[in-house]
Write a structure and sequence with these properties.
The structure is a homodimer. The first copy, chain A, is α+β, with helices and mostly antiparallel strands. Chain A has two domains: about 70 residues, Arc Repressor Mutant, subunit A (Orthogonal Bundle), CATH 1.10.10.10; about 150 residues, no CATH class. Chain A has ten helices and eleven strands. Chain A has a three-stranded antiparallel beta sheet with strand order 1-3-2. In chain A, a hairpin with a 2-residue loop joins strand 2 and strand 3. In chain A, helix 2 crosses helix 3 and helix 3 packs across helix 4. Chain A is globular and about 50 Å long. Chain A binds a DNA duplex through helix 4. Chains A, B: It comes from Bradyrhizobium macuxiense.
Amino acid sequence: MKAGPDISRVAALVGDPARCNMLTALMTGRALTASELAQEAGITPQTASSHLAKLEAGGLIEPEKQGRHRYYRLTDPDVADVLEGLQGIAARAGHMRVRTGPKDPALRRARICYDHLAGDLGVQMLDSMKRQKLVRQTKQAIELTGEGKRFMAEELQIDANTLTHPRRPVCKACLDWSERRHHLAGTLGAAMMDRFTELKWAARDVTPGSRVVNFSRNGERRFTALFGASE
Amino acid sequence: MKAGPDISRVAALVGDPARCNMLTALMTGRALTASELAQEAGITPQTASSHLAKLEAGGLIEPEKQGRHRYYRLTDPDVADVLEGLQGIAARAGHMRVRTGPKDPALRRARICYDHLAGDLGVQMLDSMKRQKLVRQTKQAIELTGEGKRFMAEELQIDANTLTHPRRPVCKACLDWSERRHHLAGTLGAAMMDRFTELKWAARDVTPGSRVVNFSRNGERRFTALFGASE
DNA sequence: TTCATAGTTCGATGATAGCCGAAGCATTGG
DNA sequence: CCAATGCTTCGGCTATCATCGAACTATGAA
């Protein structure tokens, strides 16, 4: 007498190493073409095509035709959240990748989680925002306070009114796999990351498929000035 | 140049239908024996034994020997959270089980999520608790307020001091797959569900493996009196 | 001790599904 | 129109892995 949605199909999709590599590559938030994803997974385009069709049927990714390219992106930030959740379990069980490159510490410090900042600095930022009362928890979601709106406008030139989105909250807590605490997701989290990039405080690592975010010397100083660790 | 924990192994574990059935059976929060899990998954004990060994190695379940029985439980509420998250994605993609029994509406209304209340009533409860300022979001977690502690003691005879646990927060937001909003997890969520059961306001469905929670007529009245929908 | 139950290990089997080569569409550019 | 590129479909190969029968260990009961 089973009931409820059938997990195993979705999980099986993520369970294949090739598909999993594609999905983690898409966690950068960027849309990638079928061939790029094939290379990312280390398989031929034919095989990739089959995998992509399955992922699409499973509702994990969405295609967008553009000329003779097919760009794929994760359908939803929620998908990224679940992937992060799985990473948390895998990390605890000690199932790290065999090739744990030198980039790993950098990944723990600051990385892209779909479209917002994660890792040590991401968690630090949300903590600091709460301490400064820029956000608070009201009914069911985190909310930007009046003080927070002023702060965003003055310090980061982000107009809070532009952040509303029909299907996505402005603020959302996203569980960080490396820190096991929350960082800020939602349209605000995305907008802030965008601004950091525009201001050249931070830049995504150039290695294709890397989620690492590198802060410049000046950028880190400015970032810490706004969201410094607990005094 | 991959980095980070390897998701695919964990996901592959969940991806097998038999193992997935076992895991969802364990989402009741109860510990089940190897044979019970075998029956739940519809496979022979030998096969189940192999699956259980894999799930244990993957860190998803934990055994506990008791006489000649081996009881298995989910290692961690976090595992249950990820499973709920996967259900959310599966539900959106329309991957419901083929045999969507008559219990389905009941499951959406009230069910056990590991050890606390989920479904419509679970979401309603957390909403109401926030409205009544029994809990609030402080730094990174939901916190029980002074008012909340009084409420718990007076209305439900729950001593807030007994709720602290070395590895588990008192309050935690858990994403509900059917409502797509949060309900209350953590030791408080578990304690409240226990109390509801003790007071005979609600009881888990007798069907083995069912996550449905049935509220008595009186129980629902009392529950609504405390955590009624928004007035 | 003897029997029954719970669980595991081993070996063989069979089906699923990932993989690639080759060929086929579709779009762009010359 | 032809060539090149991006992607998909088809067919066959292969390896993985879930499955079960049979035999074995361990605990508890008579």
